[in-house]
Amino acid sequence: MSLPERRPDAGELRLLDQVAGHKVIQTYIALADQFTGRLGYTEHGFRHANLVGHIAFNILDRLGYDRHLAELAAVAGYLHDVGNVISRQNHPQTSALLALPILTELGMATEDIGLVIGAIGNHEEELGHPVSPVSAAVNIADKSDVHRSRVRKDARVEFDIHDRVNYSATHSFVRVDATSRTITLELQIDTSVSDILEYFEIFLVRMMMCRRAAEGLDCKFRMTVNGHSLL
Questions:
Q1: What domains, with CATH codes, occur in the chain?
Q2: Closest by alpha carbon to 145, among 226, 68, 230, 81?
Q3: How far apart are CA 221 and CA 208, in angstroms?
Q4: Contact call for residues 141 and 119 (beta carbons, < 8 A)
Q5: If both were cysteines, with which of 22, 33, 147, 174 could 45 make a disulfide (CB 3.0 to 4.6 Å apart)?
Q6: Cα torsion for 37, 2, 147, 96, to the nearest 10°?
């Protein structure tokens, strides 16, 4: 699966720990994952939330952004899909609205809350834009999470292209190079499960969103599949 290039040191993600430990958030994420499962979507639970949060942190941290800003990206990444507990439709906006009272309760500064909910509300490719570094990091982290561990046990891989493409991804990694100002999504695709073209059939728009997000961080977005550079 996509893992950050390093795990943040103890104490770096104190705010994320508070958010992840909040009983309301825990309940919402658990239910949201159940609901998306019923709708036939891949995993959208604690695994995805944790992974997106840590990758978003890692992107900003590697690029030399302020650690506090990186932690806000981690929080936004963790909370970005919580709105699925209400509905899949417009879930970025409902996620932001559900996060608002929790972040206020935790005593976050108003500007910090604004950066977090702005990133959450802009993470889908249909309407979202990288409105801040926090937003850009979350966009890349979210769209890079393609991996067979997201496929549910009752999935019909042979018939559903989304399950098939995710199941074919045996390795994904977001590599951040601050010197060359590149962010590279490295994928390993099992072509006996899914053709590489199928990946682009369903994910091309997401990759274009990653490119815009990388540009918002003054970086170039790159992509390699099975060791070959494609973007």
A1: 14-229 (1.10.3210.10)
A2: 81
A3: 9
A4: no
A5: 33
A6: 30
Query: Which DSSP helix (H) or strand (E) runs through 124?
Result: none
Strands (E) in 63-209, as ranges, are: 169-177, 182-189
Closest of 42, 44, 51 to residue 152, by C-alpha: 42
Instruction: Please state whether 146 falls in left (phi above 0), alpha (psi between -120 and 50) or beta.
Output: beta
101 vs 113: CA distance, rounded Å: 10
The pLDDT tens digits of the residues spanning 156-171 come to 766 688 889 999 999 9
Q: If DSSP codes are grouped into helix, strand and coil, which group holds residue 182?
A: strand
In contact, 188 and 170? CB cutoff 8 Å: yes
DSSP, collapsed to helix, strand or coil, labels residue 230 as coil
Using one digit for the tens of pLDDT, what is the confidence trace for 46-77?
A: 999 999 999 999 999 999 999 999 999 999 99
State both tokens at 28: 């919402």
